[in-house]
């Protein structure tokens, strides 16, 4: 079997870069569209495309981060100064943040679970597409992915869920290796 050595090596060493270690430049608008075309090419039972994208870039990231910080501070008035700074920069660490939104809903044939899994596949595919174009990426959720109170602010519609906020930018430094699970603990060959 011929081996695609470059792809194999990439998959064997793939690594996320923490968002705070990213800098400009991020992908251009054309590159973002290219990334999303690749990201959309995922297994999707029934061809439902049960996901969509919201792109946060430029000054809009600052506006939204400051609105998110207001909500966080209202909920926790005793918030420490360093946490306030974190809240004010939620969407500004990377030049581009792409929300992968799961629109999974009951369907006569396709289980909702499969639709949700497809959105997860989109997130990883988007992350890998970013790497293919030379960018670093990080799949994050954080509190505002689960807080329906801020969904209108972020453009997430009722009934939708956030599969991930994929942060994309240029790597400032290599993040180093991350401990991986012991494969022997995870694998069972049925019948043995
Ligand atoms: C659905 C999902 C949500 C995640 N959310 C966060 C998060 O909010 N904060 C965080 O530090 N890491 C989060 N992670 C982990 C990072 O995406 C990433 O997996 C980790 O930093 C290292 O992964 P790597 O194997 O790609 O290097 C999340 C991962 C997944 C799959």
Automatic annotation (TrEMBL):
Its cofactor is FMN. Residues 12-169 form the Nitroreductase domain. Keywords: Flavoprotein, FMN, NAD, NADP, Oxidoreductase. The keyword NAD applies. One of its GO terms (molecular function) is oxidoreductase activity. Transmembrane segments: none annotated. CDD domains: YdjA-like (cd02135). FMN binds at residues 14-16, 41, 45, 139-141. It comes from the Bacteria. Binds 1 FMN per subunit. Belongs to the nitroreductase family. This is Putative NAD(P)H nitroreductase. It comes from Hoeflea phototrophica (strain DSM 17068 / NCIMB 14078 / DFL-43).
